[in-house]
Amino acid sequence: MQSPRLFSSCRINYLPTAVEYARIKADPEKYEQYLLREATRQRNRYWQNPEFRRRTKEKSRLRKVGYRNTREPYARRTVLYNWVFRYTWFRDLPWKSHRPLLYNQGIKHTCSSCGMSRNNGSKLWWTDPGTFTCHTCYTKASWDEVMPEGYGDCRTIADVIARRAQLGGSPP
Ligand SMILES: [Zn+2]
Asked: Please, which domain of life does this record's source organism belong to (predicted)?
Protein backbone atom coordinates (compact mmCIF):
# COMPACT_ATOMS: atom_id res chain seq x y z
CA MET A 1 0.00 0.00 0.00
CA GLN A 2 1.23 3.42 -0.85
CA SER A 3 1.92 5.50 2.21
CA PRO A 4 -0.47 8.45 2.57
CA ARG A 5 0.91 11.86 1.73
CA LEU A 6 0.46 13.41 5.09
CA PHE A 7 2.40 16.57 4.51
CA SER A 8 -0.39 18.41 2.74
CA SER A 9 -2.88 17.86 5.54
CA CYS A 10 -0.38 18.74 8.25
CA ARG A 11 0.56 22.10 6.88
CA ILE A 12 -2.60 23.89 7.88
CA ASN A 13 -1.27 27.36 7.31
CA TYR A 14 0.58 26.44 4.16
CA LEU A 15 0.15 28.89 1.30
CA PRO A 16 1.17 28.01 -2.26
CA THR A 17 4.08 29.75 -3.93
CA ALA A 18 3.42 31.87 -7.02
CA VAL A 19 4.37 28.98 -9.32
CA GLU A 20 2.17 26.48 -7.47
CA TYR A 21 -0.67 28.97 -7.46
CA ALA A 22 -0.44 29.48 -11.24
CA ARG A 23 -0.60 25.70 -11.71
CA ILE A 24 -3.64 25.40 -9.43
CA LYS A 25 -5.40 28.26 -11.17
CA ALA A 26 -4.87 26.71 -14.60
CA ASP A 27 -6.86 23.63 -13.52
CA PRO A 28 -10.54 24.52 -12.84
CA GLU A 29 -11.09 21.49 -10.62
CA LYS A 30 -7.97 22.05 -8.56
CA TYR A 31 -8.77 25.75 -8.34
CA GLU A 32 -12.23 25.11 -6.98
CA GLN A 33 -10.80 22.75 -4.36
CA TYR A 34 -8.22 25.34 -3.52
CA LEU A 35 -10.86 28.07 -3.05
CA LEU A 36 -12.93 25.79 -0.83
CA ARG A 37 -9.86 24.90 1.24
CA GLU A 38 -8.92 28.59 1.53
CA ALA A 39 -12.45 29.57 2.59
CA THR A 40 -12.44 26.82 5.25
CA ARG A 41 -9.02 27.89 6.43
CA GLN A 42 -10.12 31.52 6.75
CA ARG A 43 -13.35 30.54 8.49
CA ASN A 44 -11.50 28.33 10.99
CA ARG A 45 -9.01 31.07 11.59
CA TYR A 46 -11.82 33.55 12.18
CA TRP A 47 -13.54 31.36 14.79
CA GLN A 48 -10.40 29.98 16.44
CA ASN A 49 -8.32 33.12 16.62
CA PRO A 50 -9.88 35.99 18.62
CA GLU A 51 -7.20 38.45 17.50
CA PHE A 52 -7.81 37.64 13.82
CA ARG A 53 -11.56 37.98 14.44
CA ARG A 54 -11.09 41.39 16.05
CA ARG A 55 -8.89 42.59 13.15
CA THR A 56 -11.35 41.33 10.52
CA LYS A 57 -14.26 43.12 12.20
CA GLU A 58 -12.26 46.30 12.58
CA LYS A 59 -11.28 46.23 8.88
CA SER A 60 -14.85 45.82 7.73
CA ARG A 61 -15.95 48.62 10.07
CA LEU A 62 -13.28 50.95 8.66
CA ARG A 63 -14.14 50.07 5.04
CA LYS A 64 -17.72 51.08 5.77
CA VAL A 65 -16.68 54.56 6.85
CA GLY A 66 -14.50 55.16 3.81
CA TYR A 67 -11.03 53.74 4.43
CA ARG A 68 -9.92 52.45 1.04
CA ASN A 69 -6.79 50.86 2.44
CA THR A 70 -6.98 49.68 6.02
CA ARG A 71 -3.28 48.87 6.30
CA GLU A 72 -1.50 50.95 8.88
CA PRO A 73 0.32 53.30 8.75
CA TYR A 74 -0.93 54.00 5.22
CA ALA A 75 -4.52 54.35 6.41
CA ARG A 76 -3.45 56.69 9.22
CA ARG A 77 -1.46 58.85 6.81
CA THR A 78 -4.37 59.20 4.38
CA VAL A 79 -7.16 59.92 6.84
CA LEU A 80 -5.12 62.36 8.91
CA TYR A 81 -4.16 64.21 5.75
CA ASN A 82 -7.82 64.50 4.75
CA TRP A 83 -8.97 65.61 8.18
CA VAL A 84 -6.30 68.30 8.50
CA PHE A 85 -7.18 69.64 5.06
CA ARG A 86 -10.94 69.55 5.45
CA TYR A 87 -11.57 70.62 9.02
CA THR A 88 -10.17 73.85 10.46
CA TRP A 89 -11.36 72.87 13.94
CA PHE A 90 -9.44 69.60 13.65
CA ARG A 91 -6.17 71.54 13.27
CA ASP A 92 -6.92 73.39 16.50
CA LEU A 93 -7.37 70.31 18.70
CA PRO A 94 -4.91 69.84 21.62
CA TRP A 95 -2.00 68.20 19.77
CA LYS A 96 0.65 66.38 21.76
CA SER A 97 4.20 66.60 20.40
CA HIS A 98 3.63 68.29 17.05
CA ARG A 99 0.90 70.39 15.53
CA PRO A 100 -0.10 70.53 11.86
CA LEU A 101 1.05 73.42 9.68
CA LEU A 102 -0.96 73.82 6.54
CA TYR A 103 0.23 75.96 3.66
CA ASN A 104 -1.77 76.97 0.62
CA GLN A 105 1.13 75.93 -1.61
CA GLY A 106 3.93 73.40 -1.41
CA ILE A 107 6.66 74.61 0.96
CA LYS A 108 10.12 73.11 1.29
CA HIS A 109 11.30 72.28 4.78
CA THR A 110 13.81 69.66 5.84
CA CYS A 111 12.20 66.84 7.79
CA SER A 112 13.90 66.47 11.18
CA SER A 113 13.24 62.74 11.07
CA CYS A 114 14.11 61.52 7.55
CA GLY A 115 16.13 64.57 6.42
CA MET A 116 14.21 64.76 3.17
CA SER A 117 12.80 67.88 1.59
CA ARG A 118 10.48 67.08 -1.28
CA ASN A 119 11.30 68.82 -4.52
CA ASN A 120 7.91 70.43 -4.93
CA GLY A 121 7.59 71.04 -1.23
CA SER A 122 4.65 69.90 0.79
CA LYS A 123 1.50 71.67 1.90
CA LEU A 124 1.38 69.85 5.20
CA TRP A 125 4.13 69.80 7.80
CA TRP A 126 4.14 68.99 11.48
CA THR A 127 5.97 71.36 13.80
CA ASP A 128 7.57 70.84 17.19
CA PRO A 129 7.80 74.02 17.19
CA GLY A 130 11.18 74.98 15.77
CA THR A 131 11.59 71.78 13.77
CA PHE A 132 9.54 70.32 10.93
CA THR A 133 8.50 66.74 10.41
CA CYS A 134 7.05 65.48 7.15
CA HIS A 135 3.57 63.98 7.16
CA THR A 136 4.87 60.48 6.32
CA CYS A 137 7.29 60.44 9.26
CA TYR A 138 4.80 61.98 11.65
CA THR A 139 2.13 59.39 10.90
CA LYS A 140 4.53 56.44 11.35
CA ALA A 141 4.04 56.64 15.13
CA SER A 142 1.07 54.89 16.76
CA TRP A 143 -2.45 56.31 16.60
CA ASP A 144 -2.17 57.25 20.24
CA GLU A 145 0.98 59.29 19.61
CA VAL A 146 -0.19 61.07 16.46
CA MET A 147 -3.73 61.95 17.57
CA PRO A 148 -4.54 64.95 19.80
CA GLU A 149 -4.76 64.58 23.58
CA GLY A 150 -7.86 62.55 24.44
CA TYR A 151 -8.38 61.35 20.85
CA GLY A 152 -5.92 58.42 20.76
CA ASP A 153 -8.59 55.77 20.21
CA CYS A 154 -10.52 57.66 17.49
CA ARG A 155 -10.25 56.11 14.03
CA THR A 156 -12.93 57.95 12.06
CA ILE A 157 -14.00 61.56 11.84
CA ALA A 158 -17.31 60.51 13.43
CA ASP A 159 -15.32 59.18 16.42
CA VAL A 160 -13.42 62.49 16.58
CA ILE A 161 -16.58 64.60 16.44
CA ALA A 162 -18.25 62.48 19.15
CA ARG A 163 -15.17 62.75 21.38
CA ARG A 164 -14.98 66.48 20.86
CA ALA A 165 -18.59 66.79 22.03
CA GLN A 166 -17.81 64.58 25.06
CA LEU A 167 -14.89 66.80 25.93
CA GLY A 168 -17.10 69.87 25.82
CA GLY A 169 -16.21 71.29 22.41
CA SER A 170 -18.91 73.07 20.45
CA PRO A 171 -20.21 71.19 17.40
CA PRO A 172 -18.11 71.81 14.26
ZN1 LIG B 1 10.23 62.72 7.10
From this structure: Eukaryota
* Residue 128 DSSP symbol: S
Distances (CA, A) of 18 to 22, 24, 31, 37: 6, 10, 14, 17
Rounded CA gap, 120 and 57, in Å?
Answer: 39
Ligand 1 centroid to Cα of residue 136, in Å, is 6
User: CA torsion 140→145→146→147, rounded to 10°?
Assistant: 150
Please provide the size of the chain in residues. 172
DSSP category for residue 97? S
Mean pLDDT estimate for the chain: 86
Alpha helices in 49-167 (DSSP H): 50-64, 74-86, 88-91, 135-138, 143-146, 157-166
DSSP state of 129: S
Cα 79 to ligand 1 centroid, rounded to whole Å: 18
Mean pLDDT of 104-116: 90
Distance 64 CA to ligand 1 centre (A): 30
Q: Say if residue 6's pLDDT is above 90.
A: no
Q: Where residue 135 falls among pLDDT bands split at 50, 70, 90?
A: very high
How far is ligand 1, taken at its centre, from the CA of residue 146, in Å?
A: 14
The rounded Å distance from CA 137 to ligand 1 centre is: 4
